[in-house]
Specification:
homotetramer; mainly alpha; Arc Repressor Mutant, subunit A; Tetracycline Repressor, domain 2; 2 domains; 11 helices; DNA-binding
Chain lengths: 208, 208, 208, 208
DNA sequence: AATGAATGAGGATTCATTCAT
DNA sequence: TATGAATGAATCCTCATTCAT
């Protein structure tokens, strides 16, 4: 008895189970369509348990969103840490993006879906992959490796294309693994974005 | 116009008001988050009126989706009717796409959002703009105007970029009107997609 | 046009169709479970039509109940008109009862069901077969043909047995036609009820 | 008793209150005519409480029906346990039947009414008094104590008569307590059913 | 912390009845 | 009379949240 209490104290709580369960359900059905009962059942916990850790279902969703988004961005940041050259960096972020999407499909689904709809109001104050893309693009334009376009337009161009692939895979329009589309996709993007004027563009790797 | 109103009155139906109200609410909040009471209030109708015309809120949403998607595609199809040359055709569909998005922002929002989430299960059996894009791309590849990529990948590339723009505008990342981004965007897309090998690409307009 | 109006005037109304449709639905599902829309659909009439002829669904049901009950009783009365001898009379009423139940199964069902539940409050002021049974029994006791039991008890005994048969047929417990059970049933009833004391019973027909 | 209450409190359940309230309302007005709000009000519980214990009002009604029917049959079975002789057994079951009807008038009403209408679809798969009657009759016929009639016909005869009494009492046609009618009713039934040929029938009590 | 019964506001849907045509 | 769209109260059911244990 003592031991059990001690163990519970040590191992702490059902927080992780609840987080995991909620994430998956939110990813599959959306926050609104997921009931607290659903979460509790999946986490093998009583309904009330959720309220020990979060004030409401909404807060749980918001925590999941912000933390996972931060983590997603961090994964991508880690991949370009120390790498120079815009093309290479784009390649690496995109690779990291799809690695994440494939390793954590539920997290990925949840983040994308929630960004667009149910939790979109959180985006402005959330650290997110988009910020990273915009930075890389801006630096690429400044360095002359990229064509002179409005950075947000270029970001929309890149991110739109990148995020559409998993959608099409889920719809069954694309059959192969996401990884297999990276190279051709990068080519499409790069041909669109690369600078074509005189010098700057010729040796991008010198710059970085 | 007069006549239409008259007819509607004569046929004695609040159907159009309900459709209009529901569409706007669905676009703003999603189907699930919109209550029948919301719709009734906005349409200035009793709640029960909805059930004379549709069996449920869901059926109303489904009709709105399918009919508007059909209309959306038709608008785009009309714009390329008789036009040859892949670049021109892409330009015109994209133009039609944004014209639609700007003239019917509620319809556009609803279609995009519902496609991705609440009504995505309808997509396979729905006639949609995506079908048109895939066709144009396929023909462009066959005619040698476009690089040899998997058509669905190219479609994801184009559609991803195109649909991201309105998202970014809504987020406030892009400030100008959608129209103003068409030309630079087309350039990005075209540079990515155009064929670069010997001849075929040089005179694409000859082909069409 | 003139003719149509004239015809409608002449043929009058949709009253009979509505009555027929309502009766069948009430018999099958009960009054409460039958909607005005159900009735209108079955009668091939608009919902509002019902309110031309009755103030409410309830009034329609009440009219159906009282009129049919009266008719039911009249059918049975006609069968014993002029016949003497309690046993014979019982035989004939029971025969008439089952003839009615088989020729007008919907009317029968409706009357039985409504008597017991939804319209039971009408029974006291309604002319009904029960009244007839009680009369026959009373006369049979007075004439000495029947055992001296409380007439209502004897009536419950007879009516209970009689009405149970169609129930059991519907449940599939009894397989043959109702008609085929009349004679054995009458024997059971008669053996139970007939007077056993010396004289009275011997010449019942003298009395009547 | 104390313990039971304690347990109920501890297990923290309003299940019994809801069952009790629902039963009474169903008995009085029928399942359909009883609203969930009615039940909740009578049970002094919020409407939602019902749904913790049953999936729907229908399921609650079905449980009440099956459980009470089982109990009803068990009460009657207990009364003939170990008793021999068909007449005695019939007497005892009928006695038990009316004892039940008088001690648990609500349960009785509900069972009869629901059997005939709203829940009649459950009867085939429900253990019910009818099964017991059929068994006793069959054994009575086999032993030669009863006339050779189709057992279901005899069952209809007995059950019809028995169940009609409470109806007539409620209608005010019979004034005394049900108990007081048992003996005369048994006589009516027995005279109808008893074997009249040769020996076997003469001393039924020798058999048991 | 955990449990799970209870709460009750709110949501979707039904349906008798009304009423303009 | 007939029509059928509209009404809106009433109904069943859901679900986030609370709370006694």
């Amino acid at each position: 008895m003592e031991e059990v209490l001690y163990k519970e104290k040590r191992l702490g709580t059902r927080r992780p189970e609840i987080l995991r369960a909620a994430l998956e359900l939110f990813a599959r059905k959306g926050v609104r369509a997921t009931t607290v009962k659903d979460i509790a059942r999946k986490a093998r916990v009583a309904e009330g348990a959720l309220y020990r850790h979060w004030k409401s279902k909404k807060e749980l969703a918001e925590e999941l969103f912000c933390e996972n988004m931060k983590h997603f961005k961090a994964c991508m940041e880690a991949e370009i840490e120390g790498f120079k050259g815009t093309k290479l960096r784009v390649k690496r972020v995109v690779g990291a993006f799809y690695t994440f999407a494939e390793k954590e499909p539920m997290v990925y689904r949840f983040l994308i879906q929630a960004s667009l709809y149910e939790l979109s109001y959180l985006l402005p104050r959330t650290s997110k992959p988009l910020d990273l893309f915009v930075r890389i693009i801006q630096e690429g334009i400044e360095s002359g490796e990229l064509k002179k376009v409005e950075p947000p337009l270029a970001a929309a161009f890149i991110i739109g294309a990148i995020t559409k692939l998993p959608d099409f895979r889920e719809m069954g329009i694309l059959k192969k693994e996401l990884k297999d589309y990276i190279d051709p996709l990068i080519e499409l993007l790069w041909e669109g974005l690369k600078a074509r004027n005189g010098l700057g563009k010729t040796f991008p790797s010198w710059k970085g």
